[in-house]
Every structure is written in structure tokens, then in C-alpha cells.
């Protein structure tokens, strides 16, 4: 051939001298010339020249891109003019002198862990550092997530004020409420909001930086966010559009993040903000009181009476306790404002809101909840009434006290009051849940009264039986609470428990939420994001395999997940079309399935009401031994239940009728007592239903809008049957069967067996709760919404009668069939004792009989 052998020259990696004295440009020129000569005019030469120019072109392009990147990296610094007052308050914060260190770490690393004592300025200052360094330029924004609504709202307001920006520019966003817009530069949001955004845009392209605040709280959705973001930042780096992840935490258990090589492939940057804390003297109680609410009131009065000026902060477990303590203090101290004015202001506005109007405030959704701002740590969902007690304490010569509440469900305008100074001459006393432990720092506190208690929901991992317990908080939490007293000067913390109890009964740290609750909503969320191998997800603390398995199985039973036909048990499941719809709904998977089903039957109005009503605890009052009352209430419930097919709707029917009667009456407490309803529960149901209806109408496009009809008519027999089927379809694992007298060996008390039921998963016998209308009729097959334990006996609530044949069709995965059942049809007919199934398209025309089946 005419081609000459050519010397190989590496164009991309030419070894120019490393010595700085050599003129690189000259050398490069020389090399190019030599190469040019060498190639000559041969064909190979021509080809190579072409290739070379291509390489050069690419190189130039790369250089251009790089310089573009560099420009981007040199962000436009923004200058902020702050008022004297703000400058003065900032200058006291320990994080201010560390600004450069913090910003260097963020600039040098894609992930940074920032640890600092509560109140050092993480939440309010880091977003400002980032803003001034230009992280909110070039169309990008700064995001900060909070596990609590209170923090998202109040911190956005504070940062907006410090930067003199509008509430749109420094916005907050909680689910269904917020000020974020296209003008937003800094966005405070609950972690659920960001999770939802990651569902649409995994790369979070509009953010330049995301700060995960309160990471030490280890809420389930914060953990999931950190896992997702650990991958997201790597993907963004690869795209030359870096996203920074800043994990902000109080100084506890940092190692879960720092030494986690599953989460972070390279070690994250780290900044520790030294504390500027005054000493706090800890006073343990000699004995641990039983009634800590009463003891807390006494302690506040003692402090107020005897000790020098300074705010008092009281920690209890929930909204109800907060309100009880306030009521007592208000009674004992003269001139103390009526807190009910602020606390219940929202209830008084109880008019029905029309669609399109924004909800005034979000309410606690309990099981209906799905997203983190709805599953708040230390949430205030308690419905327990605290009885009035006369507190024996010397109240002579008491000065007035400025008492204010703080809890997560407090209306926004009332939350702000904790930051305002008390009226002149009055001592401030804030009664709070663990909201004030780390997320909100109240200025001017000198005395802390700590009950050492925290409210915790516990679930049995397998059966899902739920218990609600007041527990000791962790040692770390107790330290945090005490620390609140040492912000302005030396302080005192009064612990309402003994040092022995603290030493022996307090855990070091509280358990990460992911280890302590069912994870079905989390698994559904992940699958909806195509994360099919949920076991391999980079969790900060992985859940147990058993938990994941239970969740996946429930979702398979619900039809939210699917496995290819014939796949083995371990094969990862993927989301089904039904599951995708369910993942859009703002409720847990069970209610999501029921709601999804109810849409196809135009029964969504009933189902939203039922989802709300089933969620609220103890709606129906118990007579507690009062025979006359019991008779009266039983009669009311019987009347509501009615007769015929629709009576089999049981508790669901009672709840539908109760809600209607409540609205008809206008919702007075007297009416509720007369009808055997707990007033607070009814108010809660009204709120929840309203919110749920609004939310679903916003979310579910292309669906007929749900009408919020306060006076919903009782369902017809046909509708009631469909509702029973829908409720069953969402509760496949909550079916119970009446125990036959000959079924249990002679040892058991036959009388007790009369009321006993058996559930698939539970070893123990279960019983329909006294307040349920079906306790008397005792249907053979039932579904329930809640199983809970009282004195070692398991009771069922939210009970509805079903026909066993329905299980075959609606919950086929719960059954074992002799012949395989192909594509379980969603519609069926139940006449003449024969179960006939119909495909949707042929409904009412053609059907076929079910193969012989055995219900497990
Ligand atoms: O996040 P971290 O606990 O480190 O502190 P921060 O929430 O940024 O609070 C820093 C300081 O700002 C505290 O002393 C708060 O009392 C104060 N602050 C305030 O005065 N008003 C607000 N609305 C929010 C915070
Ligand atoms: Mg903070």
C-alpha cells in the first residue's frame, strides 16, 4: 500500500515538561509543526489530520464548557444591607465567625455535615450565607427541609426579615400551603414536599443546594431524603451541574452520617460549630411523680414565685397536656391571658370552606397521613382528655405570668408569639411539646421544667397492632431540653424525675423512626420512583428485612405492586398502575386503595368521610358502667345503623350518620353527649374530611371533583354493599372470622368464646370493641380498621361485616386456589349464593364461576 507507517503521537496526553521554566506554548507549537510535517500529504495523513482537527475541536469545546463551569462556580456574590438590630442579633450567634469555614467546606465538597448546638444559628444563618455567596443566582434556588411545619413557616419568616426579602422570595412550602412562586430564591419546606419534588425530578435541577435540617431527629422521610440525595448529588456532579447537600444536625450521633460508606462514597466535608452555652444547673427530683402534669404546674408556680426574672419553658408530650397546663396556670395566676382565644381560634372559624380556598391550617392525619409533615415527630394528635384537678399550691402574692402555648398544630399567627418579648413586667412562660427541643429556639429562657416524657406510637412489626405510649425521652433529648435554659446566661433545669430513673431507664438516643414504624408508605413511594430494590437503598440506618417484607407483602395484597407471573418470592416487585394512582393520594396505602376504588363507583364522598372518621380515635363514647346512658346511646347507634343490607356497613354506617347528624345540629358539645359522640373527635373528623376533600380535589386531576357535602345522605343498600366491598379491598389483611364453639379446646371459657374472633396473623383471639354496633349482631366475617390492646386483650374498631366469597375476588392473594385464578376481575356479582365474576367491560352481561377456593 502507499501508506507510510506513522509514528504514534498521543494528541490528548502530550507529555509536556512539568518544569515551569519551559515555555509550554512554544513546545506545543513545535510539537504541532513536527506532527504536521510528519503527516505530509499521504491518505493516512489526511485522515489523521481530519481526526486531529476533530480532537482539537472537541478539546476546544470542552475548554469552553469548562470555562463556562468556572464562571458558574464563581458565583455572583450578593450584598445584603441588614438593619442595626439584625446585625446586633446576628453578631451574637456562634455560627457567624465560622461563615468562611462553612462556605469553604460547601464549596470543596458535594456533601457536608454541619453540626452545632441548637440555637447556634444553623437554620437561620446558613441559608443566608448561601444566598450571599450567590447560590440563588442563575435561576437556581436554595432549598431547606424541616421535619416540622412550625419550623418551615417560622424560619422562612425570620430569614426573609433578616434579608429584607419578600415572603415569596424567602418562601415556605408545606403540603397544600405555602408562599413559593417563580420569584422564590430560598425555600423552606417540609421534607415531604421535597420528596414529592424528587418524584417528579430526581435531579432537583432547580436547586443549587439543599440543606437537610434537624437530621439528628432521624424522621423517616428525612432519612429517605438523605439516601436519595446522596445519589442525586453524584449524578449532578457527573452532569457538571453540581448540587450541594448540607446535612445540618445538633451535635448528636453524627457518626451515622460521617462514617457511613454506604451513604457517602467519599468522606463528607465536616464543620463543627463550637457551642456558646452558659452553664445550666440540673436539679433532679427526689422522687418521680406519677402526675407529671400537675407537678409541672406546681414547679412553674414555685419558680415564678421565688426565683429572679427569666422565662420558663415547660416540656410535655402533646397539645392536650399543653392546654391543660395553661388552663391551670391561667387559673392560679392573676391577669394571665385566656389562651383559648388563640388556641381555639381556628375551631371557631369552623365554617365549611369551598373548593379552591386554601386550607387555613393543616391538621394531623394519623394513619391517613402519608407524608412527613403529616407524620410529625412528637406529633400532637392526642385525643386524651385530661381531667380537672385541684392543684394544691400556695398562690398568694403571685405576679402575673405571660403564658403561651407552642405545638406543631398551632395556627401560624399564634406560633410567631413565642419570639415576641412578653409585655413589660410580665414573666414569659412557654408550654411546649418537643417542638422547642431543637427546631425552635425561644429567646430569654432561663428556667426549663422537663417532664422527661415523650409521646410515641408503637407498632407491632408484623401485625401492625398499634399502641400509644408515653415514654421517657432519651438522654440526648433531656440534655437538649436542659440546654434551652443556658442561652442568655446561667440557667436552671428542673427535671421531674430522679437521677436514678434517668441513669437506668433513659435510652442514650431515641430510635430512628424507620426502625419503629411500618414502612408500607415508604416502600410505595420508592417503588413509584422506580426504586425496585428497596433493600439496597442507601439508608442512613437500614430498616429490618422483616419490616420491608411485611410492607411489600401488604402492597402486593393491595394490588399496588406486581411481580411478573411465575416469578419467585424474592423477585423484586414493581409498581402497578393502581399503585401509581395510590401513590398520588395523600393517605396511607390502605385508604389510598379504598379511595381509588371509590372513584370508579362514584362513592368518593363517602370514602373521604370514612377515611377521616376511621382515622380519629374514640369517636363513640363508652358509657363506663352507666346503664341508663348505655341504653340511650345504644338506641341512637341502632337507629343510625338502620336495617337491611346497609346495616351490615356497621361502624362505617354509624360514622356516616353521626357526621351528618353532627352537621345538621350545628356541632354543639351538648348534642354530642346526647348522641354518645366525643365532641373533639367529631370536630377533628370535620376538619380532616374537609382537608382531605380539598387535597384530593387538587391532586386527582381528570377525576370528578368530590363534593364536600356536610349533610351526606345515608347510603342506599346497593351503595352500602359496594362500600363494604371497597373497605374490604383496602383491608385484605384485616379480616376476622367468628370463632366456632367447637373450634377451641375445652380449656377456654365457652362464654368468652361467644364474642371471640380469629384473624389470620394473630395468635390471640380478638374481640369487637364495646362501642361497635356489630358487637351485638356478631357477623361471621368482618373487616376492621384498628386492632389495639387494652389489659392484654385485643379489641377491634371500625368494624364492617363482609361476605367471605368477596375475599376470593377482592383479595385473591390472601387465598389459596386449587386452580390458578387468571387476572382477578375487579367486578363481581353476588346473587343466589353463587359468586360470579365479571370483567369490567362485560359487567352485567357475561361471567364465570370462581374455581374452588380455600380462604386462608
Ligand atoms: O438552627 P439553630 O438551632 O442552630 O439556630 P436558629 O434556629 O438559626 O436560631 C438562631 C437564633 O435566632 C436563636 O437565638 C433564635 O432564638 C433566634 N430566632 C429568632 O429570634 N426569631 C425567629 N423567628 C427565629 C430564630
Ligand atoms: Mg435549627
UniProtKB/TrEMBL annotation:
Helicase C-terminal domain mapped to chain residues: 299-530
Top-level division of the source organism's lineage: Eukaryota
GO BP terms: maturation of SSU-rRNA from tricistronic rRNA transcript (SSU-rRNA, 5.8S rRNA, LSU-rRNA)
Domain Helicase ATP-binding, chain residue ranges per copy: 103-270
Compositionally skewed regions (Polar residues) per UniProt: 11-20
Bias (Basic and acidic residues) ranges: 25-40
The keyword ATP-binding appears for this protein: yes
Family: Belongs to the DEAD box helicase family. DEAH subfamily.
The name this protein goes by in its record: RNA helicase
Parent-record interval covered: 222 to 1077 of 1182
